[in-house]
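Quick one: structure for this chain?
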Amino acid sequence: MLGKVTSSGIIIEGARVLLVKRLPTRKVWPSIWDVPGGTLEPSETVEQALTRELSEEVGVKVQSFEYLDTVNEREPVSGTDYVNFMFMVTSWEGSPYNAAPFEHEKLGWFSLREVLELPMVASIRQLVAQVLSPKTYRRL
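Got it. Here's what it folds into:
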C-alpha cells in the first residue's frame, strides 16, 4: 500500500503508555487518541522523523528506540492511505507535555485496560496493547 509515510513512537513508563488526543478540528483522524508521531519531511528518514516529531509534539529528546512494526491504515474521512513506521522509544530526555496544542487537545498516560476503551485507530490500539501486555512488557 502506497501512501503518506509517517513515523510514531510508543513511549512506556511503568505500565502506562503516553498518548495524545487529536483535536476535533483536525482534517484526518479527528478526536482520536494516538501515539505521538507524524509525516516525514522530504529527504528525512523514518528515524529522523521519529526524533523530530516527538520533540515537536511532546517535547522530549529521543535517546534510543527500536523498530516494532509497520502499520498500514486508510483514514476513513479523506480516504488517504498511511504507512506508519512504529517504534518503541526506550529512553528519552525531558518530561512529556503537549508541545503541539494546535494538533492535540491533551496528552495522558494510560494503562492497558484504559487503552482498550479509548477511541483509537484499531491497528495502533492493537500494537500498543501488545506492547503493554504483561507477557510482552516483561520481554522489552
